[in-house]
């Protein structure tokens, strides 16, 4: 670890039945405030999904405390070093689903989910000509970075996936399909949907893109661009080889770029990729209308 990095960012999930999950969420929020960690944690009857930042001491304590609960004794944490908090505050909420899908059938990843592939296995599958690679994220995440030759789903939200699969991949049900997402949780549900829809040969990247990027053997190979993350870092580097390329395009001029910013007009806040020149010349706005709206106030 970089000695200058005094903070850590944790990413984790676990599908496990939580008794009185709503009460657990309230208690967990109070605990996080006392420990002074920040982040976004979702708790449902079906489990927990979170990302938390804090000092090394705070995050190590958080991991110990969560694992001391028998429900989460074997939970896996993905750990990134950081120079500061990745979140402005702590957010813990009870939800009906950890990943909003609203599928018309019950899904339990512990009983129905695609075969897990290690980073090395996934890397090997990526190089097979008979394998279809499906990005399990939204379109704006794909646009910043993705695995080479992956299908880009034209989706804004995860709950659109079932209908999108029916409309776009119905003729691929007998082909081997590998899926991936940021940390793995979306693919737990996505591959369950695919199996329920009749897909026969479905796989998922264990631990997601984040784990793939940390694997010492594959070193993020065949991932182009950067990985979008849902915190103040916005993106992280995955490909640690000299093969790394930029795939993002500036919203204004389409030059290669990989910096996501929010429109400087708070009533818009459109997140868009910009190159350094356009960020300066457009003053952080996504359009002339937004700039005029702010300057006219």
From TrEMBL:
Key word tRNA processing present: yes
Gene Ontology MF terms in the entry: oxidoreductase activity, acting on paired donors, with incorporation or reduction of molecular oxygen
EC nos: 1.14.-.-
EC class (word): oxidoreductase
Keyword entries, A-Z: Oxidoreductase, tRNA processing
Keyword Metal-binding set for record: no
One Pfam family recorded for the sequence: UPF0176_N
Gene Ontology BP, a term: tRNA modification
Reaction equations catalysed: uridine(34) in tRNA + AH2 + O2 = 5-hydroxyuridine(34) in tRNA + A + H2O
Rhodanese domain mapped to chain residues: 127-221
Xref: InterPro entries: Rhodanese-like_dom (IPR001763), Rhodanese-like_dom_sf (IPR036873), Rhodanese_C (IPR022111), TrhO (IPR020936), TRHO_N (IPR040503)
Family assignment from sequence similarity: Belongs to the TrhO family.
Record function comment: Catalyzes oxygen-dependent 5-hydroxyuridine (ho5U) modification at position 34 in tRNAs.
Protein name from the UniProt record: tRNA uridine(34) hydroxylase
Protein's organism: Paenibacillus algorifonticola
Gene: trhO
